């Protein structure tokens, strides 16, 4: 395991008063860590994972219990706080931002687990990182008192750094799916990471350092009381996370895209301020009116993407606190916003790469890595432009429908 100079801090060292102050202190701590993380981007890329000491520091800062209520050992921070943290970390290193985002979104869904299980997990390890795969491709065969689970789940980002891993399964009887009026019945199972087998399959063009390998289970028995419904299940804890949390998930993904684009802009500005002059150019890059025009245009697009992401998550959180956030109109709007933000941020990073000139193509250039990373992020479910139609139907006055199922 790679080690570096990242100082291990605990949230208890900075949290002293109330959630609002705790969030400010945590954001300050993350900003202080960002340059050290950025300096290790090549190590992260080459190792195809987040180094262990960085993961430990992020855990001990309390990031992976930040949204949970105080009653189960959480910090009770807000989703807008989380979006700011993700932007900072993704600007420092795309893969660190992505894995952190996965750990943040896991908090949204773990609230559907039975309360006794939730309390036990966070009592034993309050800083644990849980990752998993939301696609229901595992099989949970019903047996007396529970399920026998087998499966092989892809894209399990951060699995080598996790303490718990979750898998989404189709419930079966005698190998056949159990059907409901909405399709196959599904359940999520969670187990300590050492119960899973990691198959190192992650060879990807972008977000290379996320370690998004396959994870596997083979005929593992799970008590019925420890399996839960990911989408239709009720929260076991009160508060904002008791609502439908899928819209927040879309905003967290958008925040990572904003962070990647922010990092690319910073890389380009650093290059320009390094007295770069293009071949046969009459002046340094930063003094070129054409360059100034183009970087100004890119900055406007980035500011718009950041503003939409933050405005959207603030509105979502306000509705979540009021208990009115839902999985139809709000999710359609969230997917619409996330798709636009990802497209805008891809344009920004591509523009930075082009303005960087021929040096951008070199493996040593951070701009080529940002370009690969943002395109990888844009392939995710939460960045797909096919969901524009659901928002468009809302604009036209059609009744709200689940943008995923269409029901």
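^ structure tokens above, recovered residues below v
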């Amino acid at each position: 395991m790679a080690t570096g100079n990242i100082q291990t801090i605990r949230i208890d060292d900075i949290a002293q008063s109330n959630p609002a102050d705790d969030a400010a202190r945590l954001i300050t701590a993350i900003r202080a860590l960002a340059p050290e993380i950025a300096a290790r981007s090549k190590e992260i890329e080459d190792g195809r994972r987040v180094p262990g000491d960085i993961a430990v520091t992020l855990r001990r800062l309390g990031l992976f219990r930040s949204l949970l209520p105080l009653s189960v050992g959480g910090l009770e921070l807000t989703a807008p706080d989380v979006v700011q943290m993700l932007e900072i970390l993704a600007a420092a290193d795309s893969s660190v931002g992505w894995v952190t985002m996965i750990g943040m979104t896991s908090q949204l869904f773990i609230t559907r687990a039975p309360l006794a299980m939730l309390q036990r997990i966070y009592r034993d390890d309050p800083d644990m990182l849980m990752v998993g795969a939301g696609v229901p491709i595992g099989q949970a065969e019903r047996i007396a008192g529970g399920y026998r689970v087998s499966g092989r789940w892809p894209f399990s980002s951060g699995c080598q750094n996790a303490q718990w891993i979750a898998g989404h399964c189709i419930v079966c009887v005698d190998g056949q799916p159990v059907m409901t009026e909405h399709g196959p019945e599904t359940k999520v199972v969670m187990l300590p990471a050492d119960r899973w087998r990691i198959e190192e399959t992650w060879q990807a063009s972008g977000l290379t350092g996320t370690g998004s390998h396959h994870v596997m289970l083979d005929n593992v028995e799970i008590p019925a009381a420890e399996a839960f419904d990911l989408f239709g299940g009720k929260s076991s804890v009160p508060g904002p996370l008791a609502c439908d949390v899928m819209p927040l998930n879309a905003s967290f993904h958008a925040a990572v895209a904003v962070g990647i684009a922010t990092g690319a802009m910073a890389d380009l500005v650093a290059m320009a301020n390094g007295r770069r002059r293009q071949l046969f150019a009459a002046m340094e890059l930063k003094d070129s009116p054409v360059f100034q025009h183009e970087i100004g245009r890119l900055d406007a697009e980035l500011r718009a993407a950041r503003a939409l992401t933050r405005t959207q998550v603030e509105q979502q959180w306000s509705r979540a606190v009021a208990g009115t956030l839902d999985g139809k109109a709000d999710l359609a709007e969230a997917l619409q916003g996330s798709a636009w933000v990802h497209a805008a941020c891809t344009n920004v990073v591509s523009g930075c790469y082009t303005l960087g000139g021929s040096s951008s193509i070199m493996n040593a250039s951070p701009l080529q890595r940002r370009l690969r990373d943002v395109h990888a992020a844009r392939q995710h479910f939460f960045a797909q432009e096919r969901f524009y139609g659901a928002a468009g139907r809302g604009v036209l006055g059609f009744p709200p429908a689940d943008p995923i199922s269409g029901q």
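Residues 289-322 form the longest helix (34 residues).
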